[in-house]
Structure formats: structure tokens, C-alpha cells
From TrEMBL, chains A, B:
It is found in: Membrane. The keyword Transmembrane applies. GO terms for cellular component: membrane. This is SLC26A/SulP transporter domain-containing protein. InterPro entries: SLC26A/SulP_dom (IPR011547), SLC26A/SulP_fam (IPR001902). GO terms for biological process: transmembrane transport. It is a multi-pass membrane protein. Pfam families: Sulfate_transp (PF00916). The chain crosses the membrane at residues 49-69, 81-103, 124-144, 150-170, 204-220, 240-259, 297-319, 331-354, 366-384, 390-408, 429-456.
Length: 596, 596
């Protein structure tokens, strides 16, 4: 009772102190180690690690190259941009990354999300890479990775499912050698069925055969064969094998400039020059300023970083094996990967699930494996671009489709349905909006619909009101079982008033609100409780707040200091009833002659 | 333990049953009485009531007419539209309204909100009235008035403050006889200071004198004078008096068509024809279809109904004196007022605070008082339009400004600041966005910022983890003090893992999550708890969920039926520890040779 100063003065956090503490922490050695995880593992590096990392890096590289080329086509960019995006992330992540398995580079979803903006110029993709890198970096620095928590599993599942279906649909035309300019779900199928007569036999045969073989090779490692090691490596390098077979077929069957399949075509040779990302560009001869480019990118500058973080952190968690993932540091690393990558004309990049799992199953020991992958991509750019121009589009389509088939989380969808029917709503909203409108808005709608669940619950906290008789005074005992906030303020008020009025005229003399679970309230709740007190006094019922903590009680006391008497601390209910009943008789003695 | 079927089958509400019950309820007499409140009070009506209602209705009417004309000018509509909006609401509310004091009609905020859309044609205002009436009606029918609960008091205060400042600012030009075409906050003041030299002496003198007198008359009733009754009626009829004085001055000083003040000008005479609201219109000779009109109105079709409900329900609550306001019925009434009013070319209407308080203080007994008000407005339209064309604009400006000065809730702002500093954030966001961008977006931003408070809290529930020693087994006892939802799923997981890892290697053998306050979880929480179990098992720690209720436990059991053993019901902690420790030794006997 003595230390109730904060009933009249609000306890606020001292911002100066917080800033001081934070800045002090920045200069410590532990923080340095946290920011540069390479310091922790590099001193312990040995030859055994080097061998393991080399083999893993090589295996990942053989998948990274065909995937990079395929994702460039999803993004609608010239083929070399895929490879431009695939090396810098690998190098940067070695220094800043915390998870040994993660491989950062172009992914199908990132490619699809950037695709909408590159119609004018590839500069948009590079600028998106730079800006989303900055956003991710800042979110990481300010520890705002918690935002990702508001993307629930049903929403994530809906998003991945829709993205996989969209991406696979976009490649169906290429699989059959049909020309198509769109990567959208509906448009792709409309184009496919509209031009099905234009199917090219060679492409279709190659595409379908490759797809079937890829799926078989993926499953080969699960078969009970004797040579486990061989089947494992065949399974891991299946994408590289498909590309090599495609190139060899295309090259051998070609004559006099005629190609048997529609191929990737010319790839600009050489390592991209190191230059700052384009802060203005030219579309159809018109100059577009930085401001206009940002306006064009719009909501993508929020959704691309978010999806990027989500993909990367989800992978880090999947491969962390019980260790806590330092989400903020992962975001810092991912941000820097994007920022530096954009200086080499990259599109937005993030952790790739396929390549990360290949990395893991190839037995990588440290993030240094990424150096081998990066070097391999650079070598491909320097020496193999002519070779890659022979990659049949149907082969790439088969590689993408086979990856997407396994990206749809069928089991997860069934799990959600089985465990909680309500969660099917955010899932379906996300999936449908993603499929039929756009990926960004699907994500936003899903998050919004799911947030409504939280808000709805906040508006209907569990409130128990029981009728008690203490010292033969009938009273209502109110137990609020969750925290009160502005959305539940009126609910509490109407529930109490309804209780009092349904008990019959003036039969309830007192309402006691127990404060056990009320840790804090806002001014709306405070004002509503004051107005509840007034309403109750018209019904000749008094309101007592019993054992509220000082933070919550303070809000009301500071609103109307004279209402301090409403709060009772420490006493038992019967003591309170006796006290209030005595006060009531005192005032009644004065009032009685006038009232009745 | 026996009745745990719902661990494997989700209990879902039977929708058919709900619909049946609802539709059955619709046909009952009580529901009829609820939907037509007039049934309750009309049979008890008597002559005494009639007299009181007549006096009150007359007094309100004398304020309603000048206000209606003033608000038409705020909305940028021809003067007669103000009067068109002022009668139908009064009549409809008699039948469907639950609160005897409320007067439905045009208000300053509604006028300002519709103003942005009437630049092309007044048809937009009438269509807005009809459509927002439909929205309000439907929200009422489906009992969605709870939506208003998400508009907290700081947001409401910010909105009213900004609206009052904007409306008053828009009238400053008229007060000084300066021409102005805008009602926006900044533009009005820019126009005022840019054209201050064009101030018309006559208008400025009349305007300022009227404003001063109105403010004095408002205060006159608080003075300790002897003739209470007279001062009260002077105070109540001050707006009507100001208009009469203005008209008389303007008429007497005019000669040969020259007017001493800028006046309202021509008002179309007669009662508006009964016709359906315009579902298409013509702007500058171009036909605008219904679809295009709706697109033009955009977000207003959500914000106007919401503000309309908010104003009306807030007033109903203020005048209900402790009785519970049937918000849904109020919304049904308000929706019908708007729908029917739109058939007489009305702009959107809602409960007016000024007129409702005049109604109340004039001693109205039943909603029938509205009939007198409505009749008075109709008579004004039929016979007095020529007279009203002499109303000086400066007089109307003074009436509006004097009303707005009292609409700013200075005390409320101070209260919010004093009681809860955090609540100043939604207040300021709402007020600033309303002032400098637009009223609709201000409201939306305020609601959004305030919802972040709830969401943030949901992501960080209070979780207490204590180190206990039961049967000499060290274990962590987790108490979740609020409900778990998807946003808090990872927080719980990381908190438990951090606890286990910071306690030193393998020192914690078991984590027990108490289920006392966990009433329900979603699939994201379920999946995170399963992944927490896996992570902990890598740290050689087992996870037990103790005394969870079946709803919450069922979500996890349905995800992975074999995890059923994780849940312990009823037993004491020491029994559980003994059981789990026994199982662990059993498995360890098998595992030990391989592990160490």
C-alpha cells in the first residue's frame, strides 16, 4: 500500500538508458563474433573439412548452374542474369552466415515475384535486389525479424503451394515447345490449350522424357539397392545430368544452324562488371527516374524482402537441428548477400531449399563450401556460355517442374485440415488470391485474414461472472481470464451490465472485478470501467476493483484521481463488503428523504 | 480420460443447427418487438408525452434547419440538399430507433466525408447515402456492430479533433467573406492568408459578432441568473436566433438586388420528389455507370458507414444512462434511415450530437418528437426557401465554428496523455493523417496502428519458466499465462530452447508445459510444439504437456496421433517424472553402447 506512487505517475522505460546500453553492447567482443560468425569457425578449420566442403560445393554447383539458367527464364530475364545472381551470395554468406548448409542464390519464387517488374528493363530486377537487400539488412539490424512470426504456417503453406503451381504451370508451354510470354497461372494454361496444336514433337518428347527420368532419379536413392553411394550421387546430380544430356543431344542433332529443340540461345559471355545498381533506367527510349522506379516496384519492396526472409529463415530452422537460429544475424547476412550481389547485376536472391538440402546431404562441414559453388558458377560464365546456349528449353522446364512437384506440401495441407479446420481459411485465402490475383497480394490477404483471428479473440476475452453471497450481501464476482485491451472494453462492460440487469431489480448490490490476470490496461478500458461504474451506480450497484496491480489500477487513478477509492488491495472480500456496505448506509441516511 | 474422443475428432459448431435456431428466433414475438421498438412504447403513449415531444421536436427543428443549410455548404452541395437530408431520418427513426433522444440527420463530419465525391455531381452524395445505408443495415442484421469496438477512444478522439479543426478551418474564409472552394485544412488557411486583403467588412463584422454571441449564449445557461427557464431556452435556440437576425439584417439592408452580405442564394423550393437513388449519372456531359461511380467512391463505402455507426452508437451510449444499447438494432434503424432518405435526394445521415443533446435537454419523452422536427423541415422547404436565400454565409460559418469549438475533446486528450502515454500514438497518427491527408485514411491508419498493439502483445505472451527438482530430476516448468496463437508459437519454442541450453549441458531432463491457461491453439502452435519436442530430444530432454484441455491437446494429437503419449492428464508431477524417467532408462539401456 505504501509504494503506490505509480498509481499517479506512469512508469515509462528510460529511452536514453536503452540507447546507451545498446550502443555499449555494439562494441563488445561477443557482438563482433555474433556479427561475423566466420571468426568462430575459421580458426578451427582443417584439411578434413576442406575436402568435405569441396565435394559438397561441387555437387551444389552442378545443380546451381542449370537452376540459375532456368530461374532467369522464369524471371523473364536474359539467361546470363541467372548466373550473375548465383555466385556473390555464396561468397558473402561464408563471412556472415550462421548455418553451414544454407546456399544463397536465385530461387523460383523470387524469380516469379520479380518477373512482374522486369517487362520494361532488367535494371528493375537489379534495383529490386539492392533495395530489398537494404530492407532485409535494416530489419535484421533493428531485430524486426519477429515480423515473420505473423506469417503462420497455413499462410506459408498456401503461398508455397500457389507459387509452385504457378511456376510449374508457366513451364508447361516450354515443356511442349509452345511459345508463351506469360508466367501467370491462368494465362499459361489458356495459352497452352489455345496453342496445343503448335506442340513441337522433339521438344515434347525430350521434355516429358527428362521429367519422367528426373522424378525416377529423385526416387532412386530410396530404393533398396546395393550401391547406396552411387544412387545417392546420381540422385544429387540429376539436374546436372539432365542438362548435359540435353546439351549433347541438341548439339549432336543440330546442323547448319538448325536446332532440334527450342534452346536458351545466346548467353553473354564473361563475368559481369562490378558497378553500382542502376538508380535510373531507360524504358523504350524514355528515361525513368529512381522515384518512378520505386513507385513502379510498389508493394514488392515489402513483399520480396519478407518472402526472402521467410524462405531463408525457414530453411535455416529446418537445418539447425535444435539449435536456436539467430534470425537477426541471418537477416543481416541475407541483406548483405543481396546488396553486394546487386553490384554484379543480380536479381533478388535468398536461401534455396533444393540446393541447401543437396549441400547438407553431400556432407558440407562449414559455410566455406559456398566458395566452391561460387567459383564453379564464375567459371561457367567465363568459359561455358557457348555450351549453355544449347540447353533445350524443354530440359529446363522439366527441371523446374520436377522441383515444383515436390514443393507442394500435400501432407501439410492434410495435417492442417485434420488438426484445425479454422486454419483452412487463411490457407485457402492465401492460395486462391496468390493463384488468381498475384503472389504479393495473396500473402498480404492471408496475413490479414489470419490477424483477424487474433483480433477477434482479443475482442472476446473469457469473462466469468459468478453470483456470490458475502455477509448476506449478493454480489457479482468478475474474473477476467485474459488481458483486457481496447477491443474488449465494451464487451466487459456490456457483460457486467447484462449480468446485473438479468438478476432482477436491484438484487445485486456490488460487482467485484478480480485483478489476478489483468496485467495492464489501456485508456479505452480505463474509460469504459469508469463509465461502467457510473452505469452501475444508476442501478444502485457499486463497483470494486480488487487486487489489481498498480500498473493497471494507475491508468484509472490517473484518469480520475478521486476514483482511487474504487481499488481495494490486500483485504478479503468480506472486509471489502463490510466497508462498502457501511459507506452506503452512511450516504443513504442523507439521501433517503429525497429519494423515496 | 475416458471421454477423450475429441482428441482425434475436432468439435465443430453445427452450422445447420445454428441457422435453424437463428431462423426460428426470427419468427418469435420478442424478435419482432426488438426489430420494431415502436411496438413497445406506442401503446403506452399519452397526452403528457405528446406535449413534451412537441416542444422538444420544435426546439430541435429550429436548430436542424440552419444546421442542415450549413452542412450542405460543407458538403459542397446546393443548399436545398441539406434540408432534403434532414426530415426522412427523423420519421424513420420513430419506428425503428431504440433511444428516445437521438435525432438522425446530416452532420458536419458526414458532410465533410461526402464532400470529396460530389465535385462531379450531387448524385454521388445520394448514391453514397443509399449504399452506406445498405452497408449499415447489413452490418446490423449480421450483428457486425462489434467492428466498431476496434475503433478505440484515442482513435475516435483523434478523428473528431481533426474533423472539427478541418471543418472550422473550412469556414474561416466564409466568416470573413472571402471566396474559397476548398474545405481542406491546409488549403483553407492558404486561401485565407493569400486572400486576406479581400476580406469584406460587412461579412467579417457580422460573422465575428455572431460567433461571439453564439459562444456567449451557449454559456449563458451556466450563469447564476434568476430566470433559469428563459436562459435555457435562449441557449437552446441560439442557432435559430442567429439565423433569424442574419436574415432580417440581410433583408433590411438590401436594396435594388444588392445584398450587404454574401448570402446562401437561391434555394430550390418544394419537397423533393420521391425517386430511387441515381444508379448512374452524367458528369460534364459524360455518362458515368454504376460500376464507375462505386469505383470513384472507393474506400468511402467502408469508412462512411463505419463513421456513421460510430457517431450514432456513441451518442446512443452517452444518452442511454446505464441501459444496454442494442447496437445491432440501432444500426438497422440507421441503415433504414439512410436507405429511405436516399429516395428523397439525401446525403448520408447519422445521429447528430448537438441536436440529440438539445432534444434531451428539452425533455423529449419518446422518439415521436422526431415527427415534429421532420414536419418543420418539410414546412421550411415548402414555404420558407425564399426567406432562407437571405441567410448570410458568415452567419452559417459562425454557427458551424461555434459548434466545432466544442467538438474538440480537449479534456479527453489530456486524460489520454495522463493515463497512458502509449495511447497518444494512435491518437496522434489518426489526428495527423486526418488533418494532412484525408479523414478516411486517418481513421484506417489509426485503427491499423492500434491493432498493432494487440498483435504485438499476442506475439509476446507472458511465459514463466521455473527450474524445479522433482524426485531429484531437474526439470523446467513452463507456465503460459496467456492464450497461444500462431504469432506466439516461435516465441514459446525459442524461450524453452534458450532456457534448456543456458542451464548447461544436458542438465535439464524434462520440460513440462502446464495447460491451465491454454484454452485453444492453432495448427501453427501445434506444429511448433512438435518441432520443439524434436529439438529437445536432440538435447536429451523430453517434453510433457500437463493437464492441457482436450481442445488444445487434440490439435497436436490429430497432427501426429503417435504423439498422444506427450500428454499427461490428472497425474501429479512426481508421478509423471517417475513414469518418464522409467521409460528413458528403458531406452537408454539399448542406446548407451552406441552413444558414448
Amino acid at each position: 500500500m505504501e509504494n503506490c506512487d505509480n498509481l499517479y505517475h506512469e512508469n515509462l522505460p528510460n529511452i536514453c538508458q536503452i540507447v546507451k546500453n545498446r550502443s555499449k553492447k555494439c562494441c563488445e567482443h561477443a557482438t563482433c563474433k555474433q556479427f561475423l560468425p566466420i571468426i568462430s569457425w575459421l580458426p578451427k578449420y582443417n584439411v578434413q573439412f576442406l575436402l568435405a566442403d569441396f565435394v559438397a560445393g561441387l555437387t551444389v554447383g552442378l545443380t546451381a548452374i542449370p537452376q540459375a539458367i532456368a530461374y532467369a527464364s522464369i524471371a523473364g530475364l536474359p539467361t546470363q542474369f541467372g548466373l550473375y545472381s548465383a555466385f556473390m551470395g555464396c561468397f558473402v554468406y561464408i563471412v556472415f552466415g550462421t548455418c553451414k548448409d544454407i546456399t544463397v542464390g536465385p530461387t523460383a519464387i523470387m524469380a516469379l515475384m520479380v518477373q512482374a517488374h522486369v517487362t520494361g528493363s532488367s535494371d528493375y530486377a537489379v534495383l529490386t535486389c539492392f533495395l530489398s537487400g537494404c530492407v532485409i539488412f535494416l530489419l535484421g539490424i533493428f531485430n524486426l525479424g519477429v515480423l515473420v512470426r505473423f506469417i503462420s504456417i497455413p499462410v506459408t503453406t498456401g503461398f508455397t503451394t500457389a507459387a509452385a503451381i504457378t511456376i510449374a504451370s508457366g513451364q508447361v508451354n516450354n515443356l511442349f515447345g509452345i511459345k508463351s510470354s506469360s508466367n501467370e497461372f491462368i494465362e499459361s494454361w489458356v495459352n497452352f490449350f489455345g496453342h496445343i496444336t503448335e506442340t513441337r514433337r522433339n521438344d515434347a518428347i525430350l521434355g516429358i522424357a527428362t521429367l519422367v527420368l528426373l522424378l525416377l532419379m529423385m526416387k532412386i536413392k530410396d530404393l533398396p539397392l546395393s550401391c547406396k553411394m552411387l544412387t545417392k550421387y546420381i540422385s544429387l546430380s540429376r539436374n546436372a545430368l539432365a542438362v548435359i544430356v540435353g546439351i549433347v543431344l541438341c548439339y549432336c542433332l543440330s546442323h547448319d544452324g538448325w536446332l532440334p529443340f527450342r534452346a536458351s540461345g545466346e548467353i553473354t559471355k564473361g563475368i559481369p562488371p562490378f558497378k553500382p545498381p542502376p538508380f535510373s533506367t531507360t524504358v523504350n527510349g524514355t528515361k525513368v527516374t529512381f522515384g518512378e522506379m520505386v513507385t513502379d516496384l510498389g508493394a514488392s519492396l515489402a513483399s520480396i524482402p519478407l518472402i526472402s526472409i521467410l524462405e531463408s529463415i525457414a530453411i535455416a530452422k529446418a537445418f539447425s537441428k535444435g539449435k536456436i537460429v539467430d534470425a537477426s544475424q541471418e537477416m543481416v547476412a541475407l541483406g548483405l548477400c543481396n546488396i553486394l550481389s546487386s553490384f554484379f547485376s543480380s536479381m533478388p536472391i535468398t536461401g534455396s531449399f533444393t540446393r541447401t538440402s543437396i549441400n547438407h546431404s553431400s556432407g558440407v562441414k562449414t559455410p566455406l563450401g559456398g566458395a566452391v559453388t561460387g567459383a564453379l558458377v564464375l567459371m561457367a560464365l567465363a568459359f561455358l556460355t557457348t555450351t549453355f546456349s544449347y540447353i533445350p528449353k524443354a530440359t529446363l522446364a522439366a527441371i523446374i517442374i520436377s522441383a515444383m512437384i515436390f514443393m507442394v506440401e500435400y501432407e501439410r495441407i492434410i495435417e492442417i485440415w485434420r488438426s484445425k479446420k479454422m486454419d483452412v481459411i487463411p490457407f485457402s485465402v492465401t492460395a486462391l488470391v496468390c493463384l488468381f490475383w498475384s503472389l504479393e497480394y495473396g500473402m498480404v490477404c492471408g496475413i490479414f485474414v489470419n490477424a483477424i483471428f487474433i483480433l477477434y479473440k482479443s475482442a472476446r476475452p473469457k469473462i466469468l461472472i459468478s453470483l456470490e453471497k458475502v455477509n448476506s450481501v449478493p454480489l457479482g464476482l468478475v474474473q477476467v481470464q485474459e488481458n483486457l485491451c481496447y477491443s474488449s472494453a465494451e464487451y466487459l462492460k456490456s457483460k457486467v451490465v447484462k449480468f446485473v440487469t438479468t438478476q432482477g431489480d436491484n438484487s445485486i448490490k456490488m460487482i467485484i472485478i478480480k485483478g489476478d490476470e489483468i496485467t495492464n490496461i489501456d485508456s479505452t478500458v480505463g474509460l469504459n470501467i469508469l463509465s461502467l461504474k457510473e452505469d452501475l451506480s444508476l442501478l444502485e450497484c457499486s463497483l470494486i476493483c480488487w487486487n489489481w496491480n498498480y500498473d493497471a489500477a494507475g491508468v484509472i487513478c490517473r484518469l480520475h484521481p478521486k476514483e482511487r477509492s474504487m481499488f481495494k488491495f490486500g483485504k478479503s472480500i468480506s472486509e471489502i463488503v463490510a466497508e462498502v456496505a457501511y459507506n452506503m448506509t452512511q450516504t443513504e441516511i442523507v439521501d433517503v428523504p429525497e429519494d423515496s
